[in-house]
Amino acid sequence: MIGSKARRDRIVHLATTTGLASVEELSQLFGVTASTIRRDLAKLTTDGRLARTYGGAMALAAHPEASLRQRVGEAFEAKQAIARWAAAQVRPGETLLLDAGSTVGALAHELRTAEDITVATTGLTALQALSDVETVHVECLGGTLRPLSQGFVGPLTEAALERMTFDRVFLGTDGISPEHGICEADLRQTRLKELMARRADHVYVLAHAAKLGRRPFHAWTALGEGWTLVTDDSADPSVLEALRARGVRTVTTTPEPVPVAPRGGDG
């Protein structure tokens, strides 16, 4: 039997290469008790080498998670083009489900002119964008707030989802891979996205081109056949082709430059 330090090093290596492992799997792999593995995970979490998630599983964050505030200005024009296309798909009388995130938040702003729709959301950005719009009925799917993403997650959010169905759901993502699907920092987020997709007739993933092929974290939601990825026209064609091969429809939008106001004269 290997020593505790070597075992913990191997656990970190497994997290880096496979992304996730359960307490039971690790216990069988190393021939030690589940309580020993839990102590290992607690130590690795304290040392900052792993991030714990549900059920004894763990994920290694390859990159620090950016806050929503940091991401709002990223690829701004691309996000606006994606949001405009997404808003154009919505019809009066529909019930929509909006994820948290900056691109979905941009969609919420576009929906301010919509007529007679219902919007349920897990994101504070969408709530703020639509809170004063009389033609939009807003439902908040509350739960545990993640400050970095400004979105609600957890059992209360999941329970609220069980009471509704939707015409369309619009999901955000930290990255998207043809092999693995939608990438997020936290398994609570990926589980929630999976549940959200199950409750809607049409599923859209909104992601600007820099997120395609990106794997910053190790928590995933598998892509469903018939889902639609909406991105911008700088997306890598090989990634788009790989996504289409897996049954995902792809839509590319063309960002419009933000007009610069003319500078005033001297007199």
Annotation keywords:
single chain; 267 residues; alpha/beta; Arc Repressor Mutant, subunit A; Rossmann fold; 2 domains; seven-stranded parallel sheet; three-stranded antiparallel sheet; 14 strands; globular; disordered C terminus; transcription; NagB/RpiA_transferase-like; DeoR-like_C
Describe this structure in words.
The protein contains ten helices and 14 strands. It is α/β, with parallel strands linked by helices and 267 residues long. A seven-stranded parallel sheet has the order 5-4-3-8-11-13-14, sandwiched between helices. Strands 9-10-12 form a three-stranded antiparallel sheet, with helices on one face. A two-stranded antiparallel ribbon has the order 1-2. Helix 10 links the parallel strand 13 and strand 14. The N and C termini lie far apart (83 Å). The relative contact order is 0.13.
